[in-house]
Amino acid sequence: MIRVLNFFCVALMGLSILALYHVSERTRVTQMSLNKVNHQIREARGNIGVLQAEWARVAGPGRIQELAQRNGMHDTVSAQLSSFNLLPRRGEAPLNNSPLRNANAVVPSSPQAPMVRPTLSPQAISVQAGF
To answer: Which residue range(s) make up the domain with 19?
Structure first.
């Protein structure tokens, strides 16, 4: 009886050793994967820093202003004003004496910070005004 009990204890000890070896090997493989991912994260953070610096250079207000002036854009700001009741109905052509026309208002820009602003469409103005 004691021999059988000793045999089961030795077998249990052998199975414990195999289980611990398996856990140790999985831990080692997981640690290597974690090191690889940490390395990739460090590289990605470095790349993000480079991209942020490049974006700051490319999207700087001075560079945008220079490109705008080089391509013939001016500092004048214009807005298109319109109303839905002046627009022709679907299928109707505007008549020659129609009050429908483009209305432009030029707003002087401030001398401290000249900026290039886009022209708004009548739809964008009506959306902003809540019509």
So the answer is: 1-59
